[in-house]
Amino acid sequence: MEYDAIILGGGPGGYSTAIRLGQNGKKALMIEADKVGGECLNYGCIPSKAVIEMADAIAYLKEMPGVSSSVTIDMKKWQEWKWGMINKLTSGVEKLVKSYGGEVVMGRGVIENSRSVKVNNETFSAKNIVIATGSIPSRIKGIDDVYYNKNILDVDHIPKSLIIIGGGYIGVELGTAFAKLGSEVTIIEMMPNILPGTDTDLSRFVDRRMSTLGIKVIVGAKVDRVTKEAGYSVSLSDGNVLKAELVVMTVGRQPNTQGFGLEKINPEMDGKFIKTDKRKRTSVEGVYAVGDVSGQPMLAHKAFYDAEIAADNISGKNAEVDYRAMPFVIYSDPEIATTGIKTDKFNNIPLATNGRALGMNYNQGVFRIYVDNEFVIKGGAFVAPRASELISEISLAVEAGLTSKDLGMTVHPHPTLSEGVKEAAEATYGRSLHYKSSR
Length: 439
What we know:
With 439 residues, the protein is an alpha/beta fold. It folds into three domains: 2-137 and 254-314, FAD/NAD(P)-binding domain; 149-251, FAD/NAD(P)-binding domain; 328-427, FAD/NAD-linked reductase, C-terminal dimerisation domain (Enolase-like, domain 1, 2-Layer Sandwich). The protein has helices at residues 12-23, 38-43, 45-63, 75-99, 149-152, 169-180, 200-212, 300-314, 355-359, 387-390, 392-400, 404-408, 419-427; strands at residues 2-3, 5-8, 28-32, 103-106, 110-113, 116-119, 122-126, 129-131, 135-137, 161-165, 184-189, 216-219, 223-228, 232-236, 241-244, 246-249, 253-255, 269-270, 273-274, 287-289, 328-330, 335-340, 349-350, 366-371, 377-384. Strand 5 (110-113) and strand 6 form a beta hairpin. Helix 1 (12-23) packs parallel to helix 4 and helix 3 crosses helix 6 (169-180).
């Protein structure tokens, strides 16, 4: 049997492609080497946010004025719950793929040529191949036997002390969560600031919050060596040696392009990524690539989007990617969410002017919407609790070509965090109701 497409990888990019192809009436075969749902559902997005939610709930009660509480954490029971929740998601995804006529084969698929893939000693043929192999954690040569996101999210107890190598979004998210759960946390970052690549006037709120949580942040530091005996010792290039029960490596991720026969078809590359055009086609006819393996940004929701574009093109439609309103979220405390592009036309609305935020015991953060000279919304940046749930309004505004007045004249419920979005829109034309900007 020849399929319309064979998909290598069952993560967000892979299973989304299979589902979309099925919805388009096409026959898809999805091959997954580990677990359906990939890195995101099993070892990344979902379990990391689950541990963050637990940590936030504990810290919320602990820090609320007038509240005294004591919490006991049984991580073994929590892990049972976590995997039960994840298995419901992944089994649901697999059922969806099959409900649309797709087939799922577990095993390591290896490309034989641009029309066939071998898995479990059986060769399958298709009109198209979609590479959705995702990404893997970056490693530092010579530093082994440390934890990565997969390991730390599977611990059966809260470590007394934790050193995190890498102060990007993964390191900050995990470090903040485990500090709230009771670990003594140190984050080491070789760049001058944590969250490199994020505007410092946004990340400063997170930096300040981490300080109040007792997280030690060492910037401009290089790790020379990590040794493991009873615990871990981390040697820095300046001669300092730090000790902790566990060490976690979070120095980024890189596209997964090895071990599945990519060299057999030899597509054009863009650095470490597989190069694709706006229709997610590679340089090899009939071969597509989606998600992390196909370029930045390396985000699950970008993989969902890529998958739809690839599936539509395989199905005979003419679809092209447009990443102009691609949201990016750091699940820090407070959360940082951005979308679109920056302009120099905006006014900041302090989180401290939002009644709902103050009622949540939050006063550090900002709402910001970027517009052009005609007040057309071009992007936004929020630093606030649940900023991840607010940023989509700005992505929609960018996609729809709305002006800040369109958003400012939209009634938002009171009291909500979303009122900060309305106020930020009003601020661009000098009409914010609850804050008078001096800018």
